């Protein structure tokens, strides 16, 4: 019972976590520091500066929440939504549904604008729904991890012609791999995770808030119920006041800091390009095998590639064989797409041509053994 | 900006994090697994079993929350408190205050039973306050990290003579170093952290819930607002249903698993005894130097030892010299005890005779240089 644990070496090509490069892992072996050690505070400052670069923002309030991406989603909604606020939620996948549900939990009257899973929401429909609503908060999923669809977020800001609003964008599966452009796209709040495009282990959620978002928080009639995710309290620790809030998960932040340094050394644009190239190589191989992608070419995520499961093929068996015979993890579909797609992550240091080639070869082998294509 | 980060090697004798032994750190270098990998699920089962041993409980619902100790406190209160519930909060330190504040945030009418910081609450007073109130939830801090005081929790269950209630106990600074005895003491909910008595890095919060606590949750009129900390949803992932909730911070859980194995190999009783012995050695040295402890002998924590700062001595200067000249971190007082005490952590793998001897020698040297004792 107390003996050591020896996990196998997996090639993680699912929806995350992805494999983390040794340099980032080794950062967690650096000497631990107390949460108010002056040297640790420098590390926090560095994380903030590097995160701003990756989010493409000048937002002062940009830091990591001490929880996973879901904690980041909750931090945004718990702080921005007040009881009775009308919120327009764009829903075309599982994480859009979840964001709408969380907004409701936090007291919002949610107007759901729904569309088919795997297709982006038409911005003309978003405009119409926004115009008809009295919503002052709009939630949009940039990279829908359940479908592999990328929602154009560039046109969100045009909604301000109609009425001022706060735009909350989920960048969990895009940050560090796709351009997010927080400032350029006038996004007011965004949350992400560490284990996908950023190439760090799971456990933290990078977030960023615009001045407009902070104003909304400062003007609240009641403080948010959540103390752990109270952004104004957390900010007092990350900013010059250095007021104790909770014991910072130091080793996770070391890893994040190193992963961000890796990203900026590679260069954001080169990194986006690498993700695009490897995704396209994967898609070419998939189509050559006679398989189909779920999402249309121009709306595909480069990070999370969704393949339709051919008729007659047993989803779970194929994934189990990839795992057991090849040590390769790919993701299952879920919600409306359960049993219908595979989700293939090519993210962070996992987005390599060799991973693409290996997965294609292994998948071809397993599918043949399972009788595809039918001869 | 993007270069590597090189923290100094500190001896962490503050309120946590403590130094983590290499075997536990190395566990984080093990191959990462996906959150539904069958091998990862085995690791989760093992964590649950080991945590039950350390909490001294048979509670099925015993797992790690993916956030720090503060997230564990919030998870307990967010799930157990419903709007208008009366809660009796025992407050004799900063963390008692915080728990009372969180209960209020989550909708409770809080009756605060306060007493002097650094002294335990008299159980007769607790009985009286409970009798006069209509509280069905009682919060007690077992190990008050702000004062170094240990509250006897053995008599809590006797309150059930008066009225049935749910007992929530903060074991952040006791678990793994002091007996907690969840089942023996009939505690219904408890939260802890990983970076103190358990000897793992900060980032997770072990929690445990009795059947009585779960019944209260299942009977709620409304689900808790918090989704990230919704214990019933998290339980669906940790138990046989394995329903996705959030991406588990795998490496943090590897470290926790290894730290728990280390604890049970040492043996719980031997480990408690080691903490007691090193604390007593520290106190003997402190008193020999002419300094005084804040807390009376029989109510002292072995993990967190609080020393009164002698008159005329500059708190911040002494701590800065220990840090800069000796690479030793000790903690400052805060709240009502700011500038009045030092908080010395001897926890997990940091509770060693050599750490005690080194700190005493370094403190003696620094205090002499600062003019204590006055000659």
Short overview:
The structure is a homodimer of 375-residue chains. Chain A is an alpha/beta fold and 375 residues long.
Give an account of the 3D structure:
The structure is a homodimer of 375-residue chains. Chain A is of the alpha/beta class and 375 residues long. Chain A has eleven helices and 13 strands. Chain A has helices at 22-27, 38-55, 69-80, 94-105, 123-132, 211-218, 231-238, 250-266, 268-288, 315-326, 353-369; strands spanning 11-13, 61-65, 86-91, 109-114, 137-141, 143-144, 149-150, 166-170, 189-191, 205-209, 304-308, 328-332, 341-345. In chain A, the strands form three sheets. Chain A has a seven-stranded mixed sheet, with helices on both faces. Chain A has a four-stranded mixed sheet with strand order 1-12-13-11, with helices on one face. In chain A, strand 3, helix 4 and strand 4 form a beta-alpha-beta unit. Chain A is globular and about 65 Å long. The first copy, chain A, starts with 10 loop residues before the first strand and ends in a 6-residue tail after the last helix. The model of chain A has no long low-confidence stretch (mean pLDDT 97). The interface between A and B is large, with 79 and 81 residues.
């Amino acid at each position: 019972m107390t003996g050591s644990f020896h996990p196998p070496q997996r090639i993680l090509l699912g929806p995350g976590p992805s494999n983390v490069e040794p340099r980032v892992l080794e950062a967690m072996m650096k000497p631990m520091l107390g949460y108010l050690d002056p040297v640790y505070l420098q590390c926090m400052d560095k994380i903030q500066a590097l995160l701003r670069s990756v989010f493409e923002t000048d937002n002062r309030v940009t830091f990591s929440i001490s929880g996973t991406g879901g904690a980041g989603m909750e931090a945004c909604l718990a702080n921005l939504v007040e009881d009775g606020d009308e919120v327009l939620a764009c829903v075309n996948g599982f994480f859009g549904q979840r964001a709408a549900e969380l907004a409701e939990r936090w007291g919002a009257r949610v107007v759901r604008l729904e569309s088919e899973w795997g297709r982006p929401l038409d911005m003309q429909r978003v405009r119409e729904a926004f115009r008809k609503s009295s919503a002052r908060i709009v939630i949009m999923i940039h990279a829908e991890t359940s479908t592999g669809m990328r929602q154009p977020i560039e046109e969100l800001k045009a909604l301000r012609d109609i009425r001022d609003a706060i735009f909350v964008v989920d960048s969990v599966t895009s940050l560090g791999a796709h351009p997010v452009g927080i400032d350029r796209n006038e996004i007011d709040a965004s949350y992400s995770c560490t284990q996908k495009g950023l190439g760090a282990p799971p456990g933290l959620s990078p977030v960023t808030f615009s001045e407009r978002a902070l104003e909304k928080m400062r003007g609240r009639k009641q403080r948010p119920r959540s103390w752990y995710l109270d952004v104004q309290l957390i900010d007092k620790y990350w900013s010059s006041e250095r007021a104790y809030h909770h014991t910072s998960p130091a080793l996770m932040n070391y890893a994040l800091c190193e992963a961000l340094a890796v990203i900026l050394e590679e260069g954001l644009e080169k990194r986006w390009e690498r993700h695009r190239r490897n995704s396209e190589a994967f898609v070419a191989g998939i189509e050559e095998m006679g398989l189909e992608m779920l999402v249309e070419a121009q709306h595909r995520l480069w990070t999370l590639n969704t393949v339709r499961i051919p008729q007659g093929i047993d989803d779970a068996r194929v994934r189990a064989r990839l795992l057991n015979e090849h040590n390769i993890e790919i993701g299952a579909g879920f919600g409306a797409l359960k049993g219908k797609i595979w989700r293939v992550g090519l993210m962070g240091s996992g987005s390599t041509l060799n991973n693409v080639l290996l997965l294609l070869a292994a998948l071809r082998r397993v599918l043949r053994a399972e009788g595809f294509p039918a001869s």
